[in-house]
């Protein structure tokens, strides 16, 4: 798989070299697209030749092809536009999240499925209708006025967060339970704004009801900061870090992703010498501790 993807990468690199007018950002975009297309073709081929493979075996093949693609993707992008600290940490987090999501896209168990998440405007309309229907039935004694005021307060809270999207990274249903997931690579010193957003989103989901909010964090808990602790101690989110995140993925999808990663993901062995030396020199290797 590595050899096949590296052949695709060479073709893409050859193509961009013939276009000297392209800047490094455009070159990176083109080689990334070529390798994404190659990965998609590989996955489609796996699915078209499943024979009598179980869902677990199919998922393992897809994960292996995806990981091999990630190795070459990182190598090739770095050839046309070297990663800095911020771009590499962000990219590594995106790839980790995408790998995790494969456990839901092609699950090892049959009773889990990806579903659409709630839409703010739809929820707002439901509340407004409830208020109108209720007011229509009222004779307005004191106790009912208090209830009406409660609805009004709820509406105001929703309205104050109108610009916050309810869409999270993943929405799924398993055994009749609806879950919404936010994946996090780690929490660092500039997470204040994101923490506030997640708190607001959590409050909105709590008002809507019917969803379990999960936060799955790649880094172990001790590697995260006080922003993480604030969310972890909140009643709004169930937070899982490192091995506990993998355990939750296994519980809901039927696939032991953490174990699969330990057995199959070996960046030091699979990267080219050039890429391995680059990551060590720039001290970026820590972001690939999956």
The profile of the biggest β sheet is: 5 strands, mixed
Mean model confidence by pLDDT = 89
Backbone shape: elongated
Oligomer: single chain
Explained architecture:
With 290 residues, the chain is an alpha/beta fold. The chain is 63% helix and 9% strand. The two termini are 20 Å apart. The mean pLDDT is 89.
Structural descriptors:
290 residues
In short:
This protein has 290 residues and is an alpha/beta fold. The chain has 12 helices and 5 strands. It has helices spanning 2-17, 24-48, 55-80, 85-105, 120-137, 142-160, 192-208, 226-232, 243-253, 257-264, 267-270, 273-282, and strands at 112-114, 170-174, 177-184, 211-217, 238-241.
Question: What are the SSEs and their pairings?
Answer:
Elements: H1 2-17, H2 24-48, H3 55-80, H4 85-105, E1 112-114, H5 120-137, H6 142-160, E2 170-174, E3 177-184, H7 192-208, E4 211-217, H8 226-232, E5 238-241, H9 243-253, H10 257-264, H11 267-270, H12 273-282
Parallel strand pairs: 3-4, 4-5
Antiparallel strand pairs: 1-2, 2-3
């Amino acid at each position: 798989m590595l050899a096949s993807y590296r052949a695709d990468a060479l073709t893409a690199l050859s193509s961009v070299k013939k276009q000297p007018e392209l800047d490094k950002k455009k070159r990176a975009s083109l080689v990334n697209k070529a390798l994404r297309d190659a990965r998609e073709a590989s996955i489609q081929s796996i699915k078209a030749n499943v024979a009598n493979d179980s869902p677990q075996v199919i998922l393992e093949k897809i994960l292996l092809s995806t990981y091999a693609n990630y190795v070459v993707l990182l190598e090739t992008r770095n050839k046309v536009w070297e990663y800095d600290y911020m771009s590499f940490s962000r990219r590594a987090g995106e790839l980790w999240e995408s790998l995790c999501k494969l456990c839901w896209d092609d699950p090892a168990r049959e009773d889990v499925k990806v579903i659409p998440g709630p839409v703010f405007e739809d929820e707002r309309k439901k509340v407004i209708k409830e208020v109108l229907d209720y007011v229509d039935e009222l004779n307005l004694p004191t106790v009912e006025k208090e209830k009406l005021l409660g609805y009004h307060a709820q509406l105001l809270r929703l309205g104050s967060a109108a610009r916050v999207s309810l869409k999270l990274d993943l929405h799924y249903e398993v055994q009749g339970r609806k879950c919404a997931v936010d994946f996090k690579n780690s929490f660092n010193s500039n997470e204040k704004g994101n923490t506030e957003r997640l708190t607001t989103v959590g409050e909105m989901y709590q008002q809507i009801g019917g969803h379990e909010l999960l936060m799955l964090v790649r880094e172990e808990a001790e590697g995260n900061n006080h922003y993480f602790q604030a969310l972890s101690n909140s009643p709004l989110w169930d937070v899982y870090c490192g091995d506990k995140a993998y355990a939750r993925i296994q519980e809901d999808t039927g696939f032991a992703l953490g174990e699969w990663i330990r057995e199959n993901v070996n960046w030091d062995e699979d990267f080219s010498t050039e890429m391995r030396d680059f990551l060590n020199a720039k001290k970026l290797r820590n972001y690939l501790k999956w």
